[in-house]
Amino acid sequence: MTERTRPTMASHSLDLPAICDVCGKGRSTRRHMKCSQIRQRREGDKWAAYMANVAAKRALSKRTIARRGDSE
């Protein structure tokens, strides 16, 4: 199984503001590919911490299940 660097995309529309937080212009006026790349670089540490937390919860869950199986 490959490890993800980010969570899977939502099946519904993203809850983003109408104004771009990078360039300050409306998102519907033009493409924001460069803005998106800037945002991804800026948010990279946040996503790394989030995914580390998800992995820690998963590991904790596996240990809890293993302990329950040993005690029974």
Please explain how this structure is put together.
With 72 residues, the chain is mainly α. It has a domain at 33-71. The protein is built from two helices and no strands. The longest helix is centred in the C-terminal third of the chain and has 28 residues, at 44-71.
Sequence-ordered SSE layout with sheet pairings:
Elements: H1 33-42, H2 44-71
| Rg calc | 19 Å
The share of residues in helices is 40-55%
How would you describe the shape?
elongated
Largest sheet: none
What is the H/E order? HH
Average pLDDT rating: 77
What is the first-to-last residue Cα distance?
A: 30 Å
* Strand segment count: 0
Number of distinct helices: 2
Strand content: under 5%
Structural class label: mainly alpha
Low-confidence runs of at least 5 consecutive residues: none
Task: Sum up the structure in keywords.
2 helices, elongated
Q: Brief overview, please?
A:
About 55% of the residues lie in helices and about 0% in strands.
